[in-house]
Amino acid sequence: MTTIKAQIQPAPARRNIWHQAAGLGILALAFLWSQWPTIRDLADIWLRSDEYSSGLLVPFLALYLLWTRRDKFAGVPFRPTWAGLAVLLFAELVRHAGVYFMYSSAERLGLVLGLAGLVLFLAGWRIFRLALPVLLFCLLMIPLPRRLETQITLPLQSGATASAVFCLELLGYNAIREGNVIQIDDTMVAVAEACNGLRMIMAFFVISAVVVVLVRRSGWEKLILFLSALPIALLCNTIRLSITAIAFTYLQGEDWEKIFHDFGGYAMMPLALALIVLELWILDKMTVSPEPLDGPVDGGILVPRGRS
């Protein structure tokens, strides 16, 4: 009789698991349905805008980062908390405020806040803390606010032109700057608004963030790695503009212009990764792990060897 009872007991437990899974699936589908207009708007921006095309990779990279951290999630129980529901409600408030005041950045921010609230509500605090780096990474799929983008675009374009002229002069070329146009001998190269470097900045922040989540380093080292995306992007954009300006002194035609414009940025990706690897190597050389002291104990005090 005892054996039969032991065999029958797991059945309700299995039913409860399926019920919980069904409930989680319904909530996830409801969240996806409510956020679908925002998701579709983001997808349109990723496909249409060169500056934010890297955002298209963020959801897939986020899933990959979660998969790499699967060992940390193993064995952690799901403990839903009502605090997550409060975060979900706040996210909906932010999203609807963005819709009402026609402030799209707030609407998109509500998507990431809602995703964080959903994880907290369904899984609890422990899993939320483990997933927090990936949730913060998802913020990189949101375009900059339009006002901020407008304020930084022109300075970036001007700075890219000036840095390219400086680089060309270091290489021995007689380069003259006229506004956002570079003149090398009889060749005029215009630095368009699309060449201001914003696309590289956004893309390299995504790359740096992936490296930060994957590597095992201290907090200050990870912060340096993430913030270094800005100078690396500006440096790579200067190199790209300089190479393009030199090439245009030998090559003519719209086809070559399109090739350098469209594929020049992709060619800088390996250079950016190499610079990040170099940065990791430098950080390794700058930091030294303390060696443990091993020696006799005198009155509860550890005495290094060679001393009495």
- Structural class by sheet pairing and helices: mainly alpha
What's the structural domain tally?
A: 2
Strand content: 5-15%
The Rg value, from CA coordinates, equals: 27 Å
Structure report:
The model is unreliable at 1-9 (pLDDT under 50). The protein is built from twelve helices and five strands. The radius of gyration is 27 Å and the shape is elongated. Helix content is 70%, strand content 5%. The protein is mainly α. It has helices at residues 2-8, 10-48, 58-68, 70-73, 82-100, 104-123, 125-137, 146-170, 198-214, 219-227, 229-248, 254-286, and strands spanning 175-178, 181-184, 187-190, 297-298, 301-302. A hairpin with a 2-residue loop joins strand 1 and strand 2 (181-184). Helix 3 (58-68) packs parallel to helix 9, helix 9 packs across helix 11 and helix 9 packs parallel to helix 12 (254-286). It folds into two domains: 10-143, no CATH class; 150-286, no CATH class. The strands form two sheets. A three-stranded antiparallel beta sheet has the order 1-2-3, with helices on one face. A two-stranded antiparallel ribbon has the order 4-5.
